[in-house]
Amino acid sequence: MKKFGILLAIAPLSVSSVSSVSSVFDQSGRGTLKASTAYAQEAPLSPRVFNPQEAAQLEQASRDAWQKPGQVVAALKLEPGDVVADIGTGSGYFVTYLSRASGSSGKVYAVDIQPEMLAFVQRKVEELDLTNVIPVLSLEADTRLDRGSVDLALMVDVYHELGSPRALLSNIHTVLRPDGRLAIIDFKSDKEADKVGPPLSHRVPQTRLISEVERAGFQLTDTIELLPYQYFLIFSKRERPVATSTPGSLSQ
Question: Mind listing the pLDDT tens digit for each residue in 7-52?
Fold first, then answer.
């Protein structure tokens, strides 16, 4: 079976310009994107980042068989009115499902650092009339969302590409409400799961991810056995201890 490309939009920013995309964002990074002018970023993107020119590959129907987006969103147990942050949204593969689940009274922030990916999402938002989906142009370690504004943060196939998970996890902890949750889906690190996704050397073992996320102020509350090639973990937010500079805290 041909390997599926890495679903990822969180990566170091770069100085290279992105052709045929112009941003229409306010200072918070929220808004829309329109095709035409170049948009400048601040530093070269990692070669591991999925090429936004190939975003349509992330939408292939064959992906649904193993990604199971409808079942994933059902397992998240969202309620009408919930505010969801789809962090590293990429092509917005999940936004349609999240939009339905959160309802007209809810919001879905489609968060990504690549403006071309957000342009792809914006087209989907307009074509499907997803009025509760808001594209957000983020930074690598800053979602640019308001403190205490999010019920659920979702990261699908993003964690294994983070240069500094501690920084992003700290930001997510801040933007979640006191009873907020963090859901992480990422590729398993065993050979049996190697049919799709990134090379095994790029993957984060489940035990290591749990340890890092819990040290960032979260508690594992559920492990959902649903996906053949990915683990699916739900964390709740807890109070973080006072920051101390202990060796070996979180991997950078």
Answer: 333 333 232 223 333 344 455 555 544 332 233 344 444 445 554 5
Domain-located, residue 78: yes
Q: Is residue 192 part of a domain?
A: yes
More confident residue, 229 or 250: 229
User: For tokens 């109070």, what's the residue?
Assistant: 239
C-beta neighbour count of 239 within 10 angstroms: 7
Residue 7: inside a domain = no
Q: How far is CA 152 from the centre of its chain?
A: 11
pLDDT tens, position by position, 47-87: 455 545 555 566 577 889 999 999 999 999 999 999 999 99
Nearest-5° Cα angle at 197, 188 to 216: 50
Per the structure block, which two tokens stand in for 156?
A: 């699908």
User: How far, in Å, CA of 64 to CA of 114, rounded?
Assistant: 24
Does the global pTM surpass 0.85? no
Count of domains for the chain: 1
pLDDT at 249 over 60: no
Whether residue 162 is contained in a domain is answered as yes
Strand-pairing partners, residue 199, are none
Beta bridge partners of 233: 184, 223
Range of the domain at 129: 17-237
Q: What is the CA radius of gyration of the chain?
A: 17
Of 242, 78, 80, nearest to 153 (Cα)? Answer: 78
- Please work out, in degrees rounded to the nearest 5, the angle formed at the alpha carbon of residue 166 by the alpha carbons of 161 and 172: 90
Contacts of 77 (CB under 8 A, 6+ apart): none
Q: Give φ, ψ of 208 to 5 degrees.
A: -65, -45
